[in-house]
Amino acid sequence: MGYIRVVTVTIALSSIVCWGQAKKELHDISPRTSPVRVSGVISVADDSSKSIRSYQVEGRFHNVSDKNVALIVVHLASDQATGPSLRLTYGEDYFFRDLLESARSDIFSSNVVKLRITTSDPNKNNEVEKSIAPTTSAVIFVQFADGTTWGDPEAATTAFVERKQTEQELGRLERVLTNDGEQALANELSSENGQVFPCIRSLLDRCKGGSPSCVADGLRSVLETTRQRESVMESASTRAIERITKQ
């Protein structure tokens, strides 16, 4: 998750759909001031047997600014003539991994969003919609690697909460490694249930079937990256406060 800044991007889709599903290109109409552009496709599929419509967006973020990006938050919306409309806020956090560098692109993929199809005419409940309304994408927040932001900070609340929770979990895992060793860390991660934060999931995927030292080295690397990012962003915040107080 997983943010702070406002921009408007629109994704326009053509209207002809295959039986039960469609995949259409996104058309980015972000304002000229947007530091990030979006391209890709939106997939829409109807399961008539369950009256369920599924949405998924797969695309690329293009950093068109002169700064490295640490966080992007985008809002997707589509008002359908029939069936459920899409309202999705998607965040991509680069804080714990490689930044999205200036003039570079990165792929992203949203989770599949499943919504129930309802209609006032019960005879149409199982019909597959033959057209897709234009889907709007708005880049609503961007945080740069130096700590500066663009957009609406409130839009990034969820992303910053998840980032804080991730940092706390990394700190807990570091204590396990320090106090109990590499094997204890590997055992702890292998026994975790429920949600695993993206950077930890990525670490586990890289070390799947590997030795405990792989997990330990991966954790150390993530912790080092995290502390470097925090240091840079704290320095930027301090400089900003100093400039304000001197005015």
Describe the structure.
The chain is an alpha+beta fold and 247 residues long. The chain has 2 domains: 9-152, Immunoglobulin-like (Sandwich); 157-246, no CATH class. Helices cover 31% and strands 29% of the residues. The chain is built from 4 helices and 10 strands, in the order ββββββββββαααα. The strands form 2 sheets. Strands 1, 5, 6, 9 and 10 form a 5-stranded antiparallel β-sheet that branches. A hairpin with a 7-residue loop joins strand 5 (69-78) and strand 6 (86-93). It is globular and about 60 Å long. The relative contact order is 0.18.
Q: Measure the end-to-end span.
A: 37 Å
Largest sheet: 5 strands, antiparallel
Query: In CATH, what is the class of the largest domain?
Result: Mainly Beta
In the CATH classification, which architecture of the largest domain applies?
Answer: Sandwich
Summarize the helix and strand pattern as letters. Answer: EEEEEEEEEEHHHH
Oligomer state of the chains in this structure: single chain
Shape, per Cα inertia axes? globular
Question: C-alpha Rg, in Å?
Answer: 21 Å
Tell me, rounded to a whole number, the average pLDDT.
82
Overall number of domains: 2
Report the helical percentage: 25-40%
- The total beta strand count reads 10
Q: Classify the secondary structure makeup into a structural class.
A: alpha+beta
Helix tally?
A: 4
Taking pLDDT < 50 over at least 5 consecutive residues as the criterion, the unreliable ranges are: 1-19, 120-129
CATH topology of the largest domain: Immunoglobulin-like
Report the β-strand fraction as a percent range: 25-35%
